[in-house]
């Protein structure tokens, strides 16, 4: 049996959950004050999901990097693979908040979107 | 030298300053000028590319730059707000109400009717924690490392140890790991972590980065570049225990050992908290001088930028009310009772809401937070899992508040 | 006549400048990447009054004259000197007796203005001194300065008057012929030389040995320091506070710095003479504890939570505890070594002495240059100007209005000027402008300073070092 303690992040209450997973796969969540806590506890035990925030190289921008995020949480276990993709991605300035840099990255259903504006500048700053 | 009369001058165009400008403009004043010393507005939001911002203010989880962009767009809606960057506040004459500002265009002497201070905080440097050893390259405070990684596209090193488990340190542990830097440990002098639980999980546990509680760094070594960091366990009086030393071969030391409100420019004429160095204010954001208001990290170190923007807006609103109608109501003390470590605000002004922000003195599994005004209980609620690392926000509407001094206490 | 000076610390720099008054070729060899970064960089920065030195010592000959020369020198070279006076504090009867001895000694050495103060006078002048103080020796001619700036300004002035500076240049061999200096072999080439002045600080004995000349054995004496934030502690004391001296030396001081901060230190720990200890400027827990307890005894209200920097410096100590200066049996080779306290104070007087000593020893009279320029302009600190004057400056030069170091108000123009005067590293900028010396210790401005350095040198910010060859600050790119 696996037991994990965690703080639920679904709302600011921050209930302290105790999540138990039996050997047969069944999961029991206690400490929650609403059903969303049960959802969160189960997901976190079975397949933790994370929003990934990082940067992508910009060509010809007034900044060398544009900050990006996944627009949905993705499985924690694919994060390093997504990072490899981001490390090899380049985007041309200008970039606007919300621009989709990569659609449906690694079949996760999440897009990589820009989270800041980068203006175009022909002579790019320190790369 | 240019002289400029202005209704409201805001020092700092970060989350608090921008919020103050919005609050003032909404209330309706002729002109609000913000002077920002950096080359862009937004403050530290620009480099906080992680998310966790805006859950309260925008009811959406945003990254720092996205949050900054949203706030800036609101500011842009008001034609009477003028945000000026690369402006350095040199001196303030509090008697003549003059603020001397330097920029590449020359010196401008602003004569504001009201001044709003939103200067934020700075990071405690290494010299502030007396670490023995040498002084090689490779030592960074977390914010500086964050700036290099997120804005300048540079890595501070290849193998790092992080001192301080506050949120900034935890965020950097994750950021560096994702970028291929080996983070060997996070070291925390208290027996409990300094940052939010969710960050312990998502920044340390997710990446199997060990957290050493009740430990501190007792030596850093390296001739030109950092080579080794030594940590040791602390006893109850925070003295290193001999024989518990652990050595780490790293080329980078990241320090996240506290934020200090930037209040020096005002220390000769405003009431400053001698312990925290924050500018002491009332529930309206007003300082100890009636025409000077303050908001954000320069008053107290906040956990959430949402609250910073909100308090900025409050200060802006009441500064504008002061400018328009000489608003200056009765004032009462807000006192720290049992178990309260940090308390904001220090005064309550009649006609305002009382937004209390507090940190408990020590961790408590259970505590009842009470806000009393003479014999009236304005607020009483049991809170679970209290920790000095997590700031608690209690909002008491103006309608519930009468007259008299207020006491905030946490009963076990 | 080609004269080589080994070491561009305050001693070597002032000697170089003094020599530049004459029609001689002056070469300065410095093994570090910048001037004044050895012993000169990390000490108490005190210009001592001169009552400590026992009559008969070499020190006693040069301290008082050197102290007096600082007034004119600071005006010519435009570095900060503040004659704030010093108080040696006595807390016991035996200590009062020592004060009286120092008083007599000071009179013998020609120290002006010495007074013994009683408790009331002390406390009304310095309210933050421990009220248990019993008496103090007041010396009005004691002062504080910025030692590396003395060296940097002297070197700038020497270069303007024709001297050549070789940084990152270490003397590896001194070739002599018939007991006469002939050639210096360095890592950057060989130099035929007529006269060698050994001002090699912590390595003075090693260099003397290279020439086969007389020397005294040196060992490092480490002194640790804690610097307190001027924003918190400015004005805490207004004069230099000493404890009553002991056999270990002058003791741990509490003193203002020219920058407005408060400096506590040094400790005094003798290290072994071996190579590996000659550059050991590490601080220790025991050192911090000693500093804090000694300071608290003199000024109980001092608060170390306001510390912004800790550091340690080495002093080249000899068994005789005295300077070892002058001619040697190797013709043309002169020592200026074992320059322990009060080396900084004595340096201007020693410089004058050495120039005479060299001429006398080799039997030549140098011709004075008619066009020697004794003055050097400091890097203008715009924030000190009256606002209207600063405004005019900005209108002529916009970069004088672009603030880079917020804590210490250093503009981009000052950073560029520092680069013109020789800065190529972060420390080079720091020590010439005081950028990054303030409360945030570079937290807000280091990246901006790095960008300016990279721009001016046409390199990338990853190439910028902290102070030396291998002290890179950044180690790679996030995205390529």
Automatic annotation (TrEMBL), chain C:
It holds the Pfam family Fer2_BFD. Residues 403-455 form the BFD-like [2Fe-2S]-binding domain. Residues 3-356 form the FAD dependent oxidoreductase domain. SUPFAM superfamilies: FAD-linked reductases, C-terminal domain, FAD/NAD(P)-binding domain. This is Dehydrogenase.
């Amino acid at each position: 049996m696996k037991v994990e303690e965690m703080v639920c992040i679904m709302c600011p209450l921050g209930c302290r959950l105790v999540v138990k997973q039996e050997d047969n796969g069944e999961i029991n969540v206690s400490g929650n004050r609403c059903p969303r806590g049960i959802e969160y506890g189960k997901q976190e035990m079975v397949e933790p999901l994370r929003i990934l925030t990082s940067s992508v190289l910009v060509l010809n921008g007034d900044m060398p990097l544009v900050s990006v995020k996944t627009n949905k949480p993705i499985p924690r276990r694919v994060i390093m693979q997504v990072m490899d993709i981001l490390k090899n991605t380049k985007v041309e300035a200008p970039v606007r908040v919300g621009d989709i840099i990569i659609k449906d990255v690694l079949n996760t259903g999440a897009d990589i979107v820009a989270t800041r504006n980068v203006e175009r500048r022909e002579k790019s700053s320190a790369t | 030298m240019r002289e400029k009369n202005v209704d409201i001058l805001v020092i700092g165009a970060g989350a608090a300053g921008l919020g103050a400008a919005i609050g003032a403009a909404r209330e309706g004043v002729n002109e609000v000028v913000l002077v920002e010393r950096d080359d862009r507005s937004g403050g530290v939001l620009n480099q906080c590319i992680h998310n966790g911002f805006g859950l309260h203010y925008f009811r959406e989880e945003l990254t720092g730059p996205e949050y900054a962009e949203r706030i800036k767009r609101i500011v842009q809606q008001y034609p009477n707000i003028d945000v000026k960057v690369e402006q350095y506040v040199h001196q303030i004459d509090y008697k003549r109400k003059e603020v001397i500002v330097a920029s590449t265009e020359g010196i401008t002497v602003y004569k504001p009717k009201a001044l709003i201070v939103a200067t934020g905080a700075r990071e405690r440097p290494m010299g502030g924690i007396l670490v023995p050893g040498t002084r090689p390259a490779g030592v960074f405070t977390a914010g500086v490392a964050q700036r290099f990684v997120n804005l300048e596209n540079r890595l501070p090193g290849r193998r790092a140890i992080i001192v301080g488990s506050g949120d900034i340190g935890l965020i950097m542990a994750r950021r560096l790991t994702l970028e291929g830097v080996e983070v060997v440990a996070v070291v925390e002098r208290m027996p409990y972590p300094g940052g939010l639980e969710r960050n312990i999980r998502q920044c340390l546990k997710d990446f199997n980065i060990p957290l050493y509680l009740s430990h501190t760094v007792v030596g850093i070594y390296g001739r030109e570049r950092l080579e080794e960091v030594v940590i040791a366990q602390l006893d109850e009086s925070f003295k290193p225990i001999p024989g518990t030393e652990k050595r780490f071969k790293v080329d980078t030391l990241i320090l996240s050992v506290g934020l200090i409100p930037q209040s020096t420019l005002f220390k000769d004429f405003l009431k400053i908290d001698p312990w925290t160095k924050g500018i002491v204010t009332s529930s309206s954001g007003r300082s100890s001088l009636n025409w000077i208001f303050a908001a954000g990290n320069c008053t107290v170190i906040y956990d959430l930028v949402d609250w910073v923007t909100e308090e900025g807006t409050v200060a802006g609103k009441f500064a504008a009310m002061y400018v328009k109608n000489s608003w200056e109501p009765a004032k009462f003390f807000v006192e720290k009772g049992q178990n309260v470590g940090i308390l904001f605000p220090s005064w309550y002004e009649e006609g305002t809401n009382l937004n209390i922000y507090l940190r408990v003195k020590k961790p408590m599994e259970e505590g009842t937070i009470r806000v009393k005004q003479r014999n009236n209980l304005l607020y009483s609620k049991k809170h679970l899992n209290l920790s000095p690392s997590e700031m608690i926000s209690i909002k008491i509407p103006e309608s519930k508040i009468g007259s008299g001094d207020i006491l905030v206490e946490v009963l076990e | 006549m080609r004269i080589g000076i080994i070491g561009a610390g305050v001693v070597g720099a002032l000697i170089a400048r003094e020599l530049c008054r004459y029609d001689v070729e002056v070469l300065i060899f410095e093994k570090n990447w910048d001037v004044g970064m050895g012993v000169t960089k990390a000490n108490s920065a005190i210009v001592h009054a001169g009552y400590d030195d026992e009559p008969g010592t070499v020190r006693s000959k040069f301290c008082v004259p050197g102290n007096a020369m600082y007034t004119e020198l600071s005006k010519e070279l435009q570095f900060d000197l503040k004659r704030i006076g010093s108080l040696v504090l006595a807390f016991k009867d035996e200590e009062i007796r020592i004060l009286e001895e120092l008083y007599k000694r000071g009179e013998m050495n020609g120290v002006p203005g010495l007074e013994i103060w009683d408790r009331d006078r002390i406390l009304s002048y310095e309210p933050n001194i421990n009220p248990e103080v019993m008496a103090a020796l007041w010396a009005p001619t004691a002062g504080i300065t910025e030692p590396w700036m003395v060296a940097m300004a002297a070197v700038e002035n020497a270069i303007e008057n024709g001297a050549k500076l070789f940084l990152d240049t270490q003397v590896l061999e001194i070739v002599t012929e018939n007991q006469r200096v002939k050639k210096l072999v360095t890592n950057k080439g060989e130099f035929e030389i007529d006269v060698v002045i050994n001002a090699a600080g912590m390595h003075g004995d090693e260099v003397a040995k290279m020439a086969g000349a007389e020397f005294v054995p040196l060992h490092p004496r480490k002194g640790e320091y804690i610097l307190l934030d001027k924003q918190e502690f400015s004005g805490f004391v207004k004069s230099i506070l000493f404890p009553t001296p002991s056999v270990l030396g002058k003791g741990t001081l509490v003193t203002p710095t020219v920058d407005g901060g408060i400096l506590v230190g040094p400790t005094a720990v003798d290290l072994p003479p071996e190579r590996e200890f000659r550059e050991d400027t590490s601080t220790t827990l025991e050192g911090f504890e000693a500093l804090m307890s000694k300071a608290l005894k003199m000024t109980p209200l001092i608060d170390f939570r306001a510390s912004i920097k800790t550091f340690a410096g080495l002093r080249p100590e000899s068994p005789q505890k005295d300077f070892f200066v002058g001619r040697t049996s190797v013709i043309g080779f002169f020592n200026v070594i074992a320059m322990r306290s009060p080396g900084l104070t004595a340096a201007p007087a020693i410089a004058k002495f050495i120039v005479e000593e060299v001429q006398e020893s080799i039997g030549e009279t140098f011709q004075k240059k008619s066009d020697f320029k004794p003055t050097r302009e400091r890097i203008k600190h715009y924030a000190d100007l009256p606002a209207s004057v600063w405004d005019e400056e900005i209108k002529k030069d916009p970069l004088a209005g672009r603030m880079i170091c917020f804590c210490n108000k250093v503009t981009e123009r000052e950073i560029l000027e520092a680069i013109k005067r020789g800065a190529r590293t972060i420390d080079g900028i720091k020590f010439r402008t005081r950028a990054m010396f303030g409360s945030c210790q570079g937290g807000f401005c280091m990246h901006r300073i790095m960008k300016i350095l990279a721009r001016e040198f046409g390199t990338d910010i990853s190439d910028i070092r902290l102070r030396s060859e291998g002290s890179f600050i950044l180690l790679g790119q996030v995205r390529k």
